[in-house]
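Problem: given the chain below (342 residues), write out its structure.
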Amino acid sequence: MPALQVDKRIPEIAGVDPRAIPEAVLRSETPLVLRGLLADWPVVQAAQQSPDAVAQYLHRFERADGPPVVATVGPPEIDGRFFYDDTLQGFNFRRENVPLGVALKTLLKYAVDPAAPAIYVGSTTIDTWLPGFRAENDLPLGGRDALASIWIGNRTRIAAHQDLPDNLACVVAGTRRATLFPPQQLENLYIGPLDFTPAGQAVSLVDFADVDHARFPRFAQAQAHAQCADLAPGDALFIPSMWWHHMEAQTPFNVLVNYWWRQAPAWANTPMDTLMLAIMSIRDLPHAERAIWGDVFRHYVFDYDEDTVAGHVPAPARRSLAPLDETRAREIRARLLKRLNR
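Solution.
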């Protein structure tokens, strides 16, 4: 399976103190590789021994009464690429609810099988399924209320997608290749359906192992802007909000821990809600009307600052035109729900 040719490497930083990750890193607007950031984690040290040692280490924290995890499973012929079927109306994999211990045991069983099915336990909340794990393996993130998740699988390829939160992806076991694209490459990545997706986020339809340039001619422009990194156990990758990322796990047993957090306050709605509402209410208007609404959004949203209303709307009367807080956001949300439910 040939790798996508990418010439530019993601910038790297070595020697970062895992107890005090600089704010400049956690607020970076571009990706960064933090080599060896979690080399001292016990689970990473177990990974230096064997996959069995990692599985045994994780078993220490598994809840006897824990809920099942969701395992995504695909036949060997998908070559690890969890994706749509040929019609884009179904998928090439199935999902099974299994105990975490069963998923680990199955992965170990297939680790020596060159024709193993693709298996992927994604985005599993650590505090729910592995209580106590973070007492020994964790990163302080400057007071951020981050969601910590674990991802476990074999050789898999996750299509390029973007996430709203900032993401610190920490390789625990196995090796991975990460290929990233700036958010501005949206139109060159040929993104599939927004509301029917393999795992919640819209994905690029381009197969990075076998690029069809006739079908996706603009992908060459995205490729020219790509950055990549090869990650080993102990390495971390900071992925800023909305950067497109393709993740390829390259070994028969892989574990990744990631932290997600948003720069926005917790009460803020996701911009994807706004996008879907705009598609419903604006996209199909006549061109001239769409252009008008483009100006409205620029004025009140994208170019908004204090001067937008200063001088002609008194501060007490600004309501939604004022900087938002939780109370004001709740009022706007209630008003919007009332209108949508008419």
